[in-house]
Structure formats: structure tokens, C-alpha cells
Design goal:
The complex is a heterodimer of chains A (163) and B (794). By secondary structure, chain A is mainly alpha-helical. Helices cover 60% and strands 7% of the residues of chain A. The N and C termini of chain B lie far apart (57 Å). Classes of the chains: A mainly alpha (163), B alpha/beta (794). Chain B: One of its GO terms (molecular function) is manganese ion binding.
Chain lengths: 163, 794
């Protein structure tokens, strides 16, 4: 039992260090605060996949009573530890991503048209901004045909994302 | 997932179709991917900046060493080491302006020269000719360069320290930031925004040279346009308009390479021109433009009145006249092993202990002229740098590691003396009476003994110098207060309250500065009161950042224009850009690891009690951070730097793979200051050579030494440049001998000419009577892949 407790503590300690490391990258003033707008990036870089709504909930939990625009590490750490330990906002496996694209590809063509994808991404769900859309297209779209071959795209993105 | 239109609700109670669910999933997934990219971009950025600033720190160390040597040994060595003094000292030009002009006019330009010919006063056709020539890679002849610089010097002499401009009716002033020798960016700005003219006035905010490969062309264009339109073209001085910085960061080298005959004269003239550049510009009495920033001591009235040209370099205090110097010799001579100041192994510096404080090497005292001579030994480990008496509410910048070297924090730009060994210089107010000897001389440990220096230093000169350094080297921070800029080693960090106070005091509304690279080319901070503008795109690496400029009209509302010079015709995606930049940054970090290999291995092995070749991630991160002394996200970088063993621990030897032949090193090097290590090493080599009667190339260079040299490669280059007094790119045997005499005097040991000559001859591989830089390096077996790569890129 003592061993278990020790290893549990060790795990938590490692988790704390990971969180600290990610936080520090954005702590420009070295005073244990980060801009609230960077919280999403930090959380996602730690391996979590919250959608925008879930992200806002997390932020609401860790913000100050009177929002200052900054998040303090003391508040971030316990919340983020919980998120990681409980494995919230799990990553999305590659095949599930494929299925998602296939749902949008109603005619089962194996690719999506530029207008189709743009419409979905910028009007449905939690819409992309113009910039996000452009960036995705620059990576995903075949510029000669204006088509998105999503199978290749998903593979490429998954490969490019080392853990 | 299923087909069909099953409907569920999300956490906000909206009704979701399958398609919507799919869309949300894709968006989430994509955003996560982008977030990871941003993270990588961010730490890539951190890496570049940390390495850049760490490099600058070492430069300051080296400079202060030479400064001290100059100040204190010029009179002692009889004939005097004019080799260094010539370079680092402000040169008093024996010729009058008129005589100089005539001399330049008499330089002949060969028939074969096909570049632009300049006559003065310049006309638009001249500047157009310059533009075309540079686009065609055609250089400007040395004679015209000299004449151009000469005319610029004459013009600048008439200018005040602070230039006052007003926004012309219905026109805008364009303000550009750092260019750093990027001709392409300058041409792009001219293309997008228009050439300088009465219709298109410009302000260039410093740092025109260094780092980029076309600094010469950049300043030729800037100075030419200034001569053509002196009322519409304003150039502020930056911290790189400084001949000591140029030695290190490439401008000196570029000039010498492009102008083999006249390079030296050009450099001397450039030195004067740089120190004559105005240090600030004010628009409509409302907008202040300086290169770096301000401090809580900045006094615009004082700045308007100082003699700015006296501040030749931020890295050296104004030279005291030799009358003030009374250096006692007795403490120095013939006692290499004075019992009082042993650097090694002693925990206590016998003097100047600044009591009880976790010390920084640079406690800037507020409101007082710098008293640079109190030495204290700080604690070895803590990087914390607290500024005394200032800024209590501010958390110290604990993460700003100051040097690559062991425990010593950096000597700052304002540090005068070069400490030896591990006693470090502290600028602080700890000058208690007990530290002054009865004759009011300060005992300064130097080398193996003590040297007495008079405490007199014209405070006014120091104050003025500090004012200028603050303008050229400071950075804004988001927390209030003002603290010494320990990261850079010079200037201050100034908070929004400092900005507000200064602007209010002078009735101004905006501070525009440069000095820091920003990803978008510009950044606004301090509630909109400070703008950073940076005009060298792709500064760190292809795709690392955009450049930008500001246009300011009557209403004084800034408009920003961004651009990015690209070598590729096809625009890189964000992923590709991040990959390229990150790859480059990671390589730089790998080199750092390699150059500290022996220390790292020794420390790793201390943790590796079972000799398994593996340690935990935490231990690895701890070791690396403490040895390399760079504040980087090591855990995040780990996957790129070291391999994991199957059990999740780190195979630490894998850090050094792919970097050259590996050999485990037994002992840990004692931590010493950069220059002392270098000189020690070189001295050991001489002794060895002398004792074994072997040419140096046969001396086995142990991996230890190879690393040290690799680490200090750039500094070796500086030393080489300094030895190469006439900037010919070659060291003659004579120059070599002179320098060695100086070095050996520094070590307090006698060395005879014969040993030095033999050393020189053995280094001169091709036996042409002189030593070029490659031979110099090769003599110490430092030929790294990177050199080859540099040469290939030209």
C-alpha cells in the first residue's frame, strides 16, 4: 500500500512538472501568470481536446473573481491536474476523424469540395474564423483541383503530431 | 457514428445533427493541432532569443576584459599594446576634415569598375544608381564609400542629440525598426511604401548592421538618402551601431571582406559616424522614438545636452584620461600565486563581500553614479538577480540566466573591470568604508593579486553614458517598476508606470521603439503607449517572423504595414514554417549540449548510480538546465533532444548523437570565466609546445579542449580579429607575437619570443608567413561542420 501511495505521488509529481513546463513557455514575465487567451493553447498542448465550450468552462473555473486577463499558476495547477488525471477531453483517434469527414462527404466521393468544407467549418458547430479556415485549406487542399482529400490530410496531420 | 440524422443535444442544449457533431469534432481536432504548433513556435522563439542574448552576454564579458587591460596596462608595458588600443579606443583623427576630403579624392578608381560613381552633393540619380547596383550585386567602390561616410559625418556633427520632426500636412512619416543588414527587407519597404523623399519621409530606428549579410549596402543606402534629403530622412542610433558589437556580430567582418584595401579606414570612419548618430527622435512633441527604450532615470533634457559622440560604445565607459590612473605595480609583479586571491576552491573572496544578499553581479543603484569596483562573490547557483533598493514590488527575473559559464553571472555592459576566476564584479552600493584603503584606492582583485585603482571617476560622464545605454538597450515589461536588464546585460526593464510618467512629464503620448524581434513585426504594449517595431523579417530563420513599419499622420494614430521576404515562391504553410524554424532552433540547442558535453556527462553520471546509462526525465532536465544555463523548456524539447529507454527513462548519451565523435570524459572542468579559460588553454598549449618541442598540430587535443574551443569559437574569432590589427584577415607573426606578450603579461608569466615564434610558425600551415582564421582554428582542432556550412552559404 505504501508503495502504491508512493507511486501515486510520483505520478502526480510528474504531472505537475508537465503542467508547469507547458505553463512556463507562455509565462513571458516569469511571474507565474499567463495571458488568459493562451490557456487554450496550453491545455491543448498537454494532450487534451476540449471544444470551445468546454474550454470556456475551464477558464471560468480558473479565472479570478475579478477577471484581470491573466491566469495565475496556483489556480491553473489544481484544475489542470484534475483534467489530466481524469483524462478529460480525450484525444481523437485517427479512424474517428476519418468517420467525421466521411459523414460530411455525403456522396462518398472520397474527397470534399472547397465550398462544402468551408460551409461546414465556418457555419456549423463551433465555427472557424476566416484565418483558421484559410490556414486549414492551405494545408489540406489540393490547389489545382480545389479539393480536399481528407484521408491524406488526416494521415498527414496525425504523423506530424509527435507525442 | 451511424448514418441517418440522429439528433442529440450538446452541453449547451443545442440540438445536434450528426453532421454538426462531425463538424465539431473536426474543428476540435484541428484546433488542438494548431495549438500544438503554436506551442512549438513559441518555444522555438524562446530558444532563438535565449541563445541570442546569451551570446551577447559573453560578448560583454570579453569586451570588459579588454577594456580593463587597456585601461590598466597601456602605460605599464613600455611600448604599449597599441594593437588593441587601436581597435577599442576612440581614435583621434590627426587629419582635419579638409585634409581627409582631399585624401579621399585622390584615391583612384580603376577603369574596370562598373559600379556607381558618386559626386557630392548627391542627386537622385546617384541614389537610383546605388539601388540598381545593389540589386545587381554590384558593390560600391571604397573611395565612394569613404567619401559618403565622410560627408555623413559632417552632416551628423551639425545635428542635435534629439531630432524634432513634425508631421507634414497631408503626408505621413514612415517609421521602420531593426534592419540588421537585410537589404531585401529594405528594398521591399521602399517598393511597398515608396523611396525616401519630401513626400515620403522616413525614420529608421537603429540596428542597421550586424547579423545580416548586406549591412554595408544597407548603410550606404540609408546614409545616401540622408545626405540627399536631410530633413526627410532620420536615422536613430541603435545598440548595434557600436564598433565592439560589430566585431562580434559580423559587420566588421563584412566590411573587411568587401573592402580589402580600404576596410580599415572605412571601419574607423564608421565608428565616428555611428557615435554621431542622434539618439532620439521626437515627432510633433508627442511621439518619442528611441531604439531600445527608457528607464526611470531617463532625462530628455539632460540627453539633449550631452556630448553624444563621446559614447563610442555602450560596452566601454568613456575612457578616463591616463592622469587619473595610478596603478600600483607592486601587487602585480612576479607573484602569480598571491595567497590572497586564489580563485580556485575558495568559498570566500577576501574582500568586498557584499553582506548577506543573494547577489547579482549588477546591482544598479538608483540615482547614483556607477561605482563599479566593488567585488563580491555571489553564490554559485542562484540565478536570481535582485536589484538593490529598487523595485520591491517586482518579482526578480529569476529565469534570466546570465552566462553560459558556471556560476558567474554576467558582467554587464557597465562593468569595467574584468574579474578573474570566480570573484565577480558587483556594481552595487556596498562600497563600505572598510573596503577602501586609506589612500582612497580601491583594491581590485585581478589575476593573481590585487591592483589598486583610484575611485575617482568623473560621475558626469558615467551618468551620461548610462542615459545613452538606457535608450539603446532597454526593454519594456508588463509589470510596473524599473529594474536592470540582466538578460541583455545593459539598460533596463521598464514598466508601464515608467512609460506613463516619462510621457506625462514631457506631454507626450506615445513611445515607439525597436530592439526586440516580434513575430508579427510589431507589438503594442503598456496600454497602447509603447509600440515595438521590427523590420527584419525572417530574422531567426526562414518563416520565423514578419517585418513591419508604421505610418504616422497628423492625427498621430499609427497604421501598421507588415511584410515578409520569402526565398520560396510558394507560400509555406504554418506547419512547414514551424517545422523549418523549429528544426533550426533544435539544432542550435543540440550544439549547445555538445559544447558542454563533458560537464553534462559527468553530471548525468552522478545521478546514474546504477550505471545503466539512463536517468529520469526530471533528473535530465535538472542537469541540462544547470549546466547549459539557458532558460528553455527542456521537458518540452526532450523528444527532439534525447531518446527514451523502454522504461520511460532517458538514455542520456543519446543527447550527443549526430554531433560528432563521442568519447566519455572523466573529469568536470572547473568553472572559470570565459576569457580566462581561453587564455589558460592557450597558455597551456604554449607551455606544452615549448616543453615538448613539438609544433602545435601534433599536440593531442583532448575532447575537453575541443569542446571548450567549439563553445568559444565565436570568441576565438573575436580574439583573432583583434590580433589582426590591420584587419587584413591574416595575422602576421609580428602581430601574433605582440598579442602573446600581452596575454602572457596578463598571466604574469615570462615568455620568450622564440617559443611564441615557434608556435606561430607551427600554426601557419601553408607557410605564407601569416595566419588566417582557419589556420588559427585548426591549430586548436576546431573545424566543425558548421564552418563548412557557413562557407557554403557564402
Amino acid at each position: 500500500m505504501a508503495e502504491d501511495k508512493e507511486s501515486a505521488e510520483a505520478i502526480v509529481s510528474e504531472v505537475h512538472k508537465k503542467i508547469r513546463a507547458a505553463f512556463d513557455v507562455f509565462d513571458h514575465e516569469f511571474n507565474k501568470t499567463v495571458d488568459v487567451r493562451e490557456i487554450g493553447t496550453i491545455i491543448r498542448s498537454l494532450g487534451c481536446f476540449p471544444n470551445e465550450g468546454e474550454l470556456h468552462d475551464v477558464i471560468a473555473e480558473i479565472e479570478e473573481e475579478e477577471p484581470t486577463g491573466y491566469i495565475r499558476f496556483e489556480k491553473f495547477l489544481p484544475t489542470m491536474t484534475k483534467v489530466l488525471m481524469e483524462r478529460k477531453f480525450r484525444p481523437i483517434p485517427e479512424d474517428l476523424m476519418l468517420q467525421a469527414f466521411e459523414v460530411l462527404d455525403k456522396q462518398k466521393k472520397g474527397h470534399l469540395e472547397l465550398e462544402e468544407l468551408t460551409k461546414y467549418m465556418t457555419q456549423e458547430g463551433e465555427p472557424f474564423t476566416q484565418e483558421e479556415m484559410e490556414e486549414m485549406l492551405s494545408a489540406a487542399m489540393d490547389p489545382d483541383k480545389n479539393l480536399i482529400f481528407y484521408k491524406d490530410f488526416v494521415s498527414m496531420m496525425t504523423v506530424d503530431d509527435p507525442r | 457514428m451511424g448514418c441517418g440524422t440522429s439528433v442529440t443535444t450538446d452541453n449547451k442544449g443545442r440540438r445536434l445533427t450528426t453532421a454538426m457533431k462531425a463538424a465539431i469534432l473536426i474543428q476540435r481536432w484541428y484546433r488542438r493541432y494548431i495549438a500544438r504548433l503554436e506551442m512549438r513556435q513559441r518555444y522555438t522563439w524562446n530558444i532563438f532569443q535565449s541563445i541570442e542574448y546569451a551570446g551577447e552576454q559573453d560578448q560583454l564579458q570579453l569586451s570588459s576584459f579588454f577594456s580593463f587591460m587597456l585601461d590598466n596596462f597601456t602605460q605599464l608595458n613600455g611600448n604599449g599594446p597599441d594593437l588593441i588600443s587601436h581597435l577599442l579606443d576612440p581614435v583621434v583623427d590627426p587629419w582635419s576634415d579638409r585634409e581627409r576630403q582631399t585624401m579621399f579624392e585622390q584615391i583612384t578608381v580603376p577603369e574596370s569598375y562598373s559600379g556607381p560613381h558618386l559626386t557630392f552633393p548627391l542627386t537622385v540619380s546617384h541614389t537610383n544608381a546605388l539601388l540598381s547596383a545593389f540589386k545587381e550585386q554590384q558593390p560600391l567602390h571604397g573611395r565612394y564609400m569613404l567619401q559618403l561616410l565622410h560627408q555623413t559625418k559632417k552632416l551628423l556633427k551639425q545635428m542635435p542629440n534629439v531630432i524634432h520632426l513634425s508631421t507634414p500636412y497631408a503626408k505621413e512619416i514612415t517609421i521602420c525598426g531593426d534592419l540588421h543588414g537585410r537589404l531585401d527587407d529594405l528594398l521591399l519597404i521602399f517598393y511597398k511604401n515608396g523611396l525616401p523623399s519630401a513626400e515620403t519621409p522616413y525614420v529608421f530606428n537603429g540596428d542597421f548592421v550586424d547579423r545580416g549579410k548586406k549591412s554595408v549596402e544597407v548603410i550606404i543606402l540609408l546614409f545616401a538618402y540622408q545626405l540627399l534629403y536631410p530633413d526627410h530622412m532620420t536615422l536613430n542610433r541603435g545598440n548595434h551601431e557600436d564598433h565592439i558589437m560589430n566585431l562580434r556580430y559580423g559587420f566588421t567582418k563584412e566590411v573587411m571582406q568587401k573592402y580589402k584595401t580600404h576596410g580599415r579606414d572605412i571601419l574607423l570612419l564608421v565608428q565616428d559616424v555611428f557615435s554621431l548618430l542622434p539618439i532620439a527622435t521626437v515627432i510633433d512633441n508627442k511621439v518619442l522614438i528611441v531604439h531600445g527604450g527608457i528607464s526611470d532615470m531617463t532625462d530628455l533634457y539632460l540627453l539633449s545636452s550631452i556630448e553624444r559622440h563621446k559614447v563610442k560604445s555602450a560596452l566601454r565607459l568613456p575612457r578616463r584620461s591616463l592622469n587619473h590612473l595610478e596603478v600600483t605595480r607592486s601587487s602585480r609583479q612576479g607573484q602569480p600565486e598571491s595567497p590572497r586571491c586564489r580563485s580556485r576552491g575558495q568559498p570566500e573572496s577576501p574582500r568586498c563581500r557584499s553582506r548577506g544578499q543573494p547577489e547579482s553581479p549588477r546591482c544598479r543603484s538608483r540615482g547614483q553614479p556607477e561605482r563599479p569596483r566593488c567585488r563580491s562573490r555571489g553564490q554559485p547557483e542562484s540565478p536570481r538577480c535582485r536589484s538593490r533598493g529598487q523595485d520591491h514590488g517586482n518579482t526578480p527575473k529569476k529565469r534570466r540566466h546570465l552566462t553560459r559559464q558556471g556560476s558567474s553571472s554576467s558582467s554587464s555592459s557597465s562593468s569595467l573591470c574584468s574579474p578573474r576566476g570566480s570573484s565577480r564584479l558587483t556594481l552595487c552600493r556596498c562600497l563600505s568604508p572598510s573596503m577602501l584603503s586609506p589612500t582612497d584606492n580601491l583594491q581590485v582583485p585581478f589575476l593573481d593579486s590585487f591592483t589598486a585603482l583610484p575611485v575617482r571617476q568623473p560621475p558626469r560622464e558615467e551618468l551620461e553614458w548610462k542615459q545613452v545605454v538606457d535608450l539603446l538597450w532597454s526593454d519594456p515589461k508588463s509589470q510596473p517598476g524599473c529594474s536592470p536588464n540582466t538578460f541583455r546585460g545593459g539598460g533596463s526593464y521598464f514598466g508601464p508606470d515608467v512609460t506613463r510618467r516619462l510621457l506625462e512629464r514631457h506631454g507626450m503620448t506615445l513611445l515607439i521603439r525597436s530592439h526586440e524581434c516580434k513575430q508579427e513585426g510589431y507589438e503594442v504594449c503598456h496600454d497602447g503607449q509603447v509600440i515595438t517595431i521590427f523590420s527584419a523579417s525572417n530574422y531567426y530563420e526562414e518563416g520565423s517572423n514578419r517585418g513591419a513599419y508604421i505610418k504616422l499622420g497628423r492625427e498621430l494614430v499609427p497604421r501598421f504595414f507588415q511584410y515578409q521576404v520569402s526565398r520560396n515562391t510558394r507560400k509555406l504553410t504554418l506547419t512547414q514554417r514551424v517545422n523549418v524554424a523549429e528544426g533550426s532552433a533544435v539544432r542550435a540547442v543540440q550544439e549547445k549540449l555538445f559544447s558542454h558535453r563533458s560537464e553534462l556527462m559527468a553530471a548525468f553520471q552522478q545521478y546514474d548510480t546504477s550505471n545503466s546509462g539512463c536517468i529520469s526525465v526530471s533528473e535530465w532536465a535538472l542537469v541540462v538546465e544547470s549546466v547549459v544555463r539557458l532558460d528553455l523548456p527542456w521537458r518540452t524539447l526532450r523528444p527532439r533532444l534525447a531518446r527514451l529507454a523502454p522504461d520511460g527513462s532517458i538514455d542520456y548519451q543519446s543527447c550527443f548523437e549526430d554531433m560528432g565523435p563521442g568519447q566519455p570524459i572523466p573529469q568536470v572542468r572547473t568553472r572559470k570565466r570565459l576569457i580566462d579559460q581561453l587564455i589558460d588553454f592557450i597558455w597551456q598549449s604554449i607551455k606544452l609546445l615549448h616543453s615538448q618541442n613539438l609544433p602545435l598540430c601534433f599536440v593531442q587535443v583532448t575532447p575537453n579542449l575541443a569542446e571548450t574551443l567549439y563553445r568559444y569559437r565565436t570568441d576565438l574569432e573575436i580574439i583573432f580579429n583583434i590580433m589582426d590589427k590591420d584587419h587584413s584577415g591574416q595575422i602576421s607573426i609580428e602581430e601574433f607575437r605582440q598579442t602573446w606578450h600581452l596575454f602572457s603579461a596578463h598571466l604574469g608569466v615570462e615568455v620568450d619570443d622564440r617559443a611564441i615564434d615557434e608556435l606561430a610558425k607551427s600554426i601557419d600551415f601553408n607557410k605564407d608567413g601569416s595566419i588566417d582564421f582557419n589556420e588559427f582554428l585548426e591549430a586548436f582542432r576546431v573545424v566543425h561542420k558548421l564552418d563548412v556550412k557557413d562557407q557554403q552559404q557564402g
